[in-house]
Amino acid sequence: MSVIYSNWTICTAAITAAGLSTLTTITAFRTIRLLSKGNATPDDEVIDTYNDEKERISIDKAKHRFHISLSLTIGMTIWMLAELTWTYYQLGLRIENPFPSMADSFWLAGYPFIIYFTFGMNKALSKDGSYDR
Description:
Distance between the termini: 44 Å
Largest sheet: 2 strands, antiparallel
Number of strands: 2
Oligomer: single chain
Order of helices and strands: HEEHH
């Protein structure tokens, strides 16, 4: 019985994580669309309230944020598919330890997107493009 609860708890967490990452991607896309509608050039800037403090953001920075959040969304969605596949193998097909399975290929396919997100966040958090911590 604990297998059922643990599988569905993990699946619920994966679905929630993919859904929340989708919200950041939509927000980043709307920012790019807003900048593009105003016929902005790459040198133009608008006020961004992404953090609590106001800062100037260029369209290139907005595109970078979109790519970072899109990679997280893709990675989280692939991992969600892996968790759902694993749950299907365990609960639907009643295979106690489905290794190797299709879920493993989904997990491996999600790594490049999550690694890109990690390095992109590192660049976004640093002032000059390199972060020494």
